[in-house]
Write a structure and sequence with these properties.
Layout: H1 8-31, H2 38-45, H3 49-56, H4 59-80, H5 82-86, H6 90-101, H7 104-118, H8 128-146, H9 154-175, H10 178-192
Length: 196
C-alpha cells in the first residue's frame, strides 16, 4: 500500500483557518459583539471579507467558533493552573479562580462570554450557556464534597459560589472598582466557605 500523501493545499488551508480563528478571537475580545461586522474584522486582520466567509461560512458560524474557542481556552487554563488544581479547599479554589479571571485579558474574555450568554440569536451555539455553567459547577461540587459538605447542600452551594464569581466579576468590570469587588468576594467566600 503506497504511503498516504499529504495534501499541502488542504494543510495550508487548515493552518490558515486556525491562525485566523486565533486572530478573530483576539479581535472580538478587544472589540466585543456589539456592532460586530465581518467587513470591519476582515479589514482589521488584513484579509478579505470573502476569505473570512470561505473559512467560516457566515458571521454567526464565525462568532460561534470564537465563543467556543474562548470557553475551551478557559477550561484549559483552569486545568493547567497549578494553584487552581492544587487547591485543598473550596475557599482556596474560589480565591484561585478569581486570580485566573481578574487580569486585563480575562476581564475582556469574561465580558464577551457574558454577552454571548445573553445573546438570543443563532450566534450562540445550542446549549452554550448551560455548558459554561457546567464547566465550573462540577469542579466546585467536587471540592465541596472533599470539604465534607452534606450532599444535599452541594449543588446549592456550588450554584451560590458560581453566582458569586460571575456577579462580582461583572461588578468589578462594570463598576470599575475591582478592589472593592475583590474585597467583597473574599469576605463572601470566607463567610460561605470557611477553612484553609
Amino acid at each position: 500500500m503506497p504511503p498516504t500523501r499529504v495534501d499541502g493545499r488542504s494543510l495550508r488551508y487548515r493552518q490558515r483557518r486556525t491562525e485566523l480563528l486565533g486572530e478573530l478571537t483576539d479581535y472580538l475580545v478587544e472589540e466585543g459583539l456589539r456592532d460586530f461586522s465581518l467587513r470591519r474584522a476582515a479589514g482589521a486582520l488584513g484579509v478579505t471579507h470573502a476569505s473570512l466567509l470561505r473559512h467560516f461560512g457566515s458571521k454567526d458560524e464565525l462568532v460561534a467558533e470564537v465563543i467556543g474557542t474562548l470557553r475551551a481556552n478557559l477550561v484549559a487554563r483552569l486545568e493547567a493552573d497549578d494553584e487552581f488544581q492544587a487547591a485543598q479547599s473550596t475557599r482556596q479554589l474560589l480565591l484561585s479562580a478569581w486570580r485566573l479571571l481578574d487580569n486585563p485579558r480575562g476581564r475582556k474574555e469574561f465580558l464577551l462570554l457574558f454577552a454571548a450568554i445573553g445573546e438570543v440569536s443563532p450566534v450562540v451555539p445550542d446549549g452554550f450557556a448551560k455548558a459554561v455553567v457546567q464547566d465550573w459547577l462540577a469542579t466546585i461540587e467536587q471540592s465541596l464534597v472533599r470539604d465534607g459538605v452534606p450532599s444535599g447542600e452541594v449543588p446549592l452551594l456550588a450554584t451560590a459560589a458560581l453566582s458569586l464569581i460571575r456577579g462580582l466579576q461583572l461588578d468589578a468590570v462594570a463598576g470599575n472598582d475591582r478592589e472593592r469587588s475583590y474585597r467583597a468576594y473574599v469576605l463572601a467566600v470566607d463567610r460561605l466557605f470557611p477553612g484553609a
